[in-house]
Amino acid sequence: MPSYPESVASLIAEFERMPGIGRRTAERLAQHVLRIPSEDALRLAEAIRKVKERVRPCAVCFNMAEADPCHICGDPLRDPSLICVVEQPKDLVAIEETGTYRGLYHVLYGTISPLDGVGPEDLTIDALAARAAKGGVSEVILALNPDIEGDGTSLYIAKKLEKTRVKVTRISSGVARGSAIDRSSKSALSESLRLRKPSA
Ligand SMILES: [Zn+2]
What we know:
Strand order of the largest sheet: 4-3-5-6-7
Helix content: 40-55%
Number of strands: 7
Number of helices: 7
Strand content: 5-15%
Order of helices and strands: HHHEEEHEHEHEHE
Number of domains: 2
Structural class: alpha/beta
Distance between the termini: 54 Å
Radius of gyration: 20 Å
CATH architecture of the largest domain: 3-Layer(aba) Sandwich
Bound molecules: zinc ion
């Protein structure tokens, strides 16, 4: 980027590394940062610094949290015999927003996807199996997205948990096939949780 000053070029390059941000959007965001008052731009920088300093994955469920264990794992009013498995923290947030689920969670950080080079060892599946095997867990609810990777990962987990004798269920098709968990309506998501079925 020879026509931009070095500092601007490097800001554009940082924005461009973000998911879903192309070159043109990165340039627009950089223009925006250049235009806004210093204190606004520094507040953004500070917000980034704060999350990087404070937020860590919970050692139990891997949810992003400022406390360890996270506020959900540490809540004595939640039912520790239920573990709901989700792909990403945003799915956990979507389920929490339904207000109907009172168990714990487990965040995988993705799905098994051989084409993208993601194997089971790249996810938190071993830790999930260890939690299920430890006792005190009666049901693992798989709430992965209804796509090929979500289906494959659900099957893999169900198989992996077979010998723990913990009941493994999947949320039902209240979440329409192809529509992501974090984009489902609250009522559809609560229904699909309520109408969960044994994982085949
Ligand atoms: Zn936790």
